[in-house]
Amino acid sequence: MPAPLPHLVLASTSTFRRELLARLRLPFDVARPDTDERPRPGEAPAATAERLAREKAEAVAARFPGALVIGSDQVASCGDERFDKPGSRAGAIAQLERLAGRTVVFHTGVCLLNAATGACQVRGVPTEVGYRRLTRDAIERYVDADDPSGCAGAIKSESAGIALVELLRGDDPTALVGLPLIALCAMLRAEGVPLP
Fold first, then answer.
1. 144 noted as active-site residue
2. Which among 16, 85, 117, 185 counts the fewest CB atoms within 10 Å?
3. Mind listing the pLDDT tens digit for each residue in 32-85?
């Protein structure tokens, strides 16, 4: 008789992360992590993403003492600038005007925390995205069609945003959407979760 599956909890209310995790066909619960997502002074974007992934998992772990808790976070950067979720149509248009013709690095951190043992695995998975040169008209059509106001870098690559891209470079296509499943699968296997 196979061992029972461990209780998995996704420390996120993101529908994108929930849909990605559902691909693994493992039962899981969702819990909102209450964390301060501001970067620390002098903190590199990759370090921010990894720290916040861990802090999100830790924020939820106390409520689920026997669970494997998954946290994830993403920080977009271009040169020395960070690009958070634009939050509005005008913000998305402004971000896309700023990023058109440039390469953005999306730093995605993922954490798997065993709430029972305290064992914690954290990985960072970067993805480079080359944005095409874009006219204001093309930007407005995209923003009105896809509403990327809740996405760092103002792009939904899993949707119509792929039309804005001229290159994607990274080790895990799901990292760009917000939850690096290749890294997460390795972490789950290390905790004894049976995956194909």
1. no
2. 117
3. 999 998 999 999 999 999 999 999 999 999 999 999 999 999 999 999 999 989
